[in-house]
């Protein structure tokens, strides 16, 4: 045995790292970024200092000098906004679950790669499968804010617009992940049922799906958390969720109020996070 | 669930009884049941909010709206005329040259720079956020048990760093961007930094968890021969976490591209800027085209990151 000659090779991972760095250099040249522009103006500093200082002292009442009579107290309004945020997220998720679940089941390779009956490889099926995949990819790759922009032009500013705008990309994501989870779930039970002469459909429902269901549930709950965030962000377009009040307060320079709304959002997300953690522990044992 | 129905089944049990017993003894959790009920209630509440009026949605006026909208999606020079490929091609090229292409490049550049900065930021914070290496006596007990002050100090460093990461992550990108635009004015920096800050929070947390879950023998050995924290980190920890971190980086990069397109709506010239601009002028043809371009670069990012992940997997 001769000793290995030490040779310099960086390997695939090294190449990935190098190209990452190279593209960062490309990016900063393209964006024409000047480090000197990173130093905020004096006004900039005071804005930042004021904003961050209010993080520890969020407002409990309105900061405006004159509050119109009959306005709800700030905390009531924040709770109301949180309720809207939650409601829109829940409605959107229910829609996405139905649509994404259906698409995801259809897009799982179980149906398309015939293990026993090879008939499914025929041309029309291949086209249908490709079409399904493209549909899922398009739904997923347009941001919910852009779906909102498109739908606003058609349906106007209503809660349904917000619900559908969130539901479409989430359908795409759920469909993609569900189909992957089903593909990765153990096939033993499904194959056994197949061997016993169960129909394709029976084998799927009783053999394959139950193995993937806990993971699917856990993932769906995680997406619910994301939907809350999306729902809050949609407020920037005038939907009555938390984002709406955040922008309004920000533009009025009422930073304390901004933090009050943000903390309500944090609490909401933390609650759902805790809930989904508890559920995941029980579902994916 | 202590009872095993298979074991408890008496030999005399017929199949029906066995199945019934299995069903009775299936794992059940009151928590899951109540959660399901609560979720259902939330969904029902969501749909009863109002603003969801089916008769309104299906009214003929709505459909006229939809029809008008669809005709307005046609390239402007072709509206109300027969389709002509040369005109459509010219319209597309012009839009691409003037807006879509530069904005798409900007969007990509913002996302790349943001994710690289976020990675560097996360790497800086990962060590002090990991309980194992930031411990008063990392990996091996020292000659004497650490005093109260040193224990509190290291605990404080970990808790502080974790809190900072949570803070970065909890504030949405858009809020960071709002603040940074107010601070720095309308350059590309606010978009880059907003995405970088948020993702530093995400990557830092994921990275710290990876560090805490590392196999310890090698690190204990390094400590045993007198390695300092920095030395252990440089030789033992960093090389070990790079593969996992890179996977996370590429996952996050995909979301970065999505968010970078949208951040243009705050006045930074990425795709979102022109989309918002087209929307405010009611140029739906242009808006639709630009949204499609946005979808394309998101897909491109997906493909690129999938390739990178596959390349790295070949090495493992």
Could you explain the architecture of this structure?
- The complex is a heterodimer of chains A (285) and B (316).
- Chain A has helices spanning 11-30, 42-53, 74-107, 109-112, 123-141, 144-155, 159-184, 188-195, 200-234, 242-251, 255-283.
- Chain A is mostly helical.
- Chain A has a single domain (74-283), classed as Orthogonal Bundle (MetI-like fold), CATH 1.10.3720.10.
- The radius of gyration of chain A is 25 Å and the shape is globular.
- The model of chain A has no long low-confidence stretch (mean pLDDT 84).
- Chain B is mainly α.
- Chain B has two domains: 5-47, no CATH class; 87-313, Orthogonal Bundle (MetI-like fold), CATH 1.10.3720.10.
- Helix content of chain B is 75%, strand content 0%.
- Chain B has helices at residues 5-8, 15-24, 30-47, 54-57, 60-72, 85-129, 148-170, 173-184, 189-212, 217-224, 229-263, 271-280, 284-313.
- Chain B is extended and about 85 Å long.
- Chains A and B meet through helix 1, helix 2, helix 3, helix 5 and helix 6 of A and helix 3, helix 5, helix 6, helix 8 and helix 11 of B.
Quaternary organisation of the protein chains: heterodimer
Look at the structure and give the mean pLDDT of chain B: 85
CATH topology of chain A, by name, is: MetI-like fold
Alpha carbon gyration radius of chain A = 25 Å
Could you please say which CATH topology of the largest domain in chain B applies here? Answer: MetI-like fold
Helix count from the secondary structure assignment of chain A: 11
